[in-house]
Every structure is written in C-alpha cells, then in structure tokens.
Amino acid sequence: MTPLSPAYDNKIARKYSVKTLEHKVENKLALQKELGWAPEKRMPMLCIPTGMTEELGGKLLKEVLPGLLSQGIALLVLGKGSEEYGAIFTKLAEEKGHRVAIIKDTDEGRRKMYAAADMALFLSNPTGMSELETALQYGTIPVAPSCKALKNYNPVQEAGNSFLYDDNTKWHCFAALVRALETHVFPYDWRTIQRNCMESVGAVLEEDAE
C-alpha cells in the first residue's frame, strides 16, 4: 500500500495529523468496538503488518510470542503469510479472542490497523518495505531490527522514531518490545515519538531511494 496521510484517509474512523495526534486513539476505540473488544484506550495495541513467513522472521516470532502475550497487550495480525503461521494465529485468535485478532488483508483493513495500533513489530529488516513507510506515516511506532531508515529512541534527547534491536535473537527483540511498552505508559514521550515517526517519512523514502 502506498503511504497515505491519515489526515486525508476516509477509511479510518477519525482523521489525524502531526498536530492532532490526540485523535489517533479514537481509531483504536473504533476498532476495538468493531472487534467486539472492551474499550481500553490505554491498552497497548501492537500490529504485525507484514504477515508472517519464515523469511519474514517466523522463527523469531515463535520464540518471542510467549513473552509477548504475557505483557497484557492487544495484538493485530495482518491476514497474509504462509499456511503454517496462518494456523498459529488462527488458533491464537480463537483462544485469546478478547485481545488477538486477524485483520483482513484489504486496503481498508490495513488502514484501520495502522490507524488503531500504537506500534508495529518487524521481525526482519524493514528497509524498503512499504509497510514500514505506512507505519511511520500513521504514527505507529516500529519495533524492528536496526537499519539506516530508523533511529532508536533516545529519551534524553527526545529523538528517534523507533525501538530497535541489534541482534535477531528473542532476548534482544523482547528487550526492545519491553522498552517500547515501558515508554508507552508516558503519554508525552509516546506522542513525541509518534511525531518523530510522521515527520521522518520523507527521510525514510530518501533512504530507500539510495
């Protein structure tokens, strides 16, 4: 999907921009209602926007998933990928239907997912992915392997647009997830990173073009 500004997106419940980021949460509440979930605007909502295959980090996902689900988050998974991982997520959605959902791989489904989610989990290098550009455009903060297109959040400088991990091991990946979740409880800091995401899209596109 070509990145589309949420300020002009007619498919989402509430449009928002860098200047009106407080409206993004209304999309979370709208999707929770659509899924039949309780309205919990402070519940961290994580999406996996690439679908899942072995090539996209399936092995790492299997290793990190138990810890991820222990963190009290809502999980959105885009309904595409290999049959093996489709079965894994279908079972999870059946067992934990109050906080795990498979999102239809349609243009509208993807836009609603990005607008609702607080963060996007990438388990392989996201450079060049339209999914990464769209996540940034929608203020959905990446948790991802280190790459030139992303800058790790520095709380002292209030700089950075993501939470990065250097080694593709479950420990490093989980540590980045925990750091993101710990930061999410501070609305001012989280809003700062969201703004950094939305303002960095042009730089990411330039990085991909090199």
Task: Give an account of the 3D structure.
The chain has 210 residues and is α/β, with parallel strands linked by helices. It has a single domain, classed as Glycogen Phosphorylase B (Rossmann fold, 3-Layer(aba) Sandwich), CATH 3.40.50. Helix content is 44%, strand content 11%. Strands 3-2-1-4-5-6 form a six-stranded parallel beta sheet, sandwiched between helices. The protein starts with 23 loop residues before the first helix and ends with a helix.
Q: What fraction of residues sit in β-strands?
A: 5-15%
Q: What would CATH call the class?
A: Alpha Beta
Note the overall shape.
globular
Rounded average pLDDT: 90
CATH superfamily: Glycogen Phosphorylase B
Determine the oligomeric state from the structure. single chain
Over the alpha carbons, how many angstroms does the gyration radius reach?
A: 16 Å
Number of DSSP-assigned strands: 6
Number of domains in the coordinates? 1
Helix content: 40-55%
* CATH-derived architecture: 3-Layer(aba) Sandwich
Number of DSSP helices?
8
H/E element order:
HEHEHEHEHEEHHH
| The CATH topology | Rossmann fold
